[in-house]
Amino acid sequence: MSEILSNTHATPELAELSIPSPRWQAAVGVGVLFVAGVMAAGAVSIPGDAGYGGVGPNFMPWLCAAVLGLCGLLLIWEAMSGGFRNAGDPGGSKHAQLIPFAWVSAGLLLNAVLITHVGFIVGCTLCYALAVQGLRRAGGQTGLLAPKSLAIDVFTGLAISAPVFWVFTQFLAINLPGLTNTGWL
Length: 185
What we know:
mainly alpha
């Protein structure tokens, strides 16, 4: 029994990875409530005129704000009633991995800069390929810049972005930047 009790005291290494105190957990809930409040304040500025099916353009922002507010309240309640029970080890690395972060950031930033010049499909494919490279590096995979690996990433990015583009432009009549004026590329 004494061995079990002696193991309950965390070593300095484990203390760094331990679950934060209930006060910090409640602070997360308060932060979520704050974001819900900001979303609700933004939803107030959207006109509520009913559109297709009786639902106005402010329906989704209000729904998201309400669900986020409910989640914030539940997080606070959980923290104040004993903390996040059954929470697993947070895992992960002690230090940020800057190279994978740079790959993912480059994908997002290049997409934002190039989307109006190269179109939605090419921009999103590039974003996907660069983000996957970063995530694979974070996972410790090797052989990442091999032609086969890059081809799979580009093909997968095309397989995701092209149908999304076509659904938005052809079926929902939402204009996205394309290479041509046909709505197909």
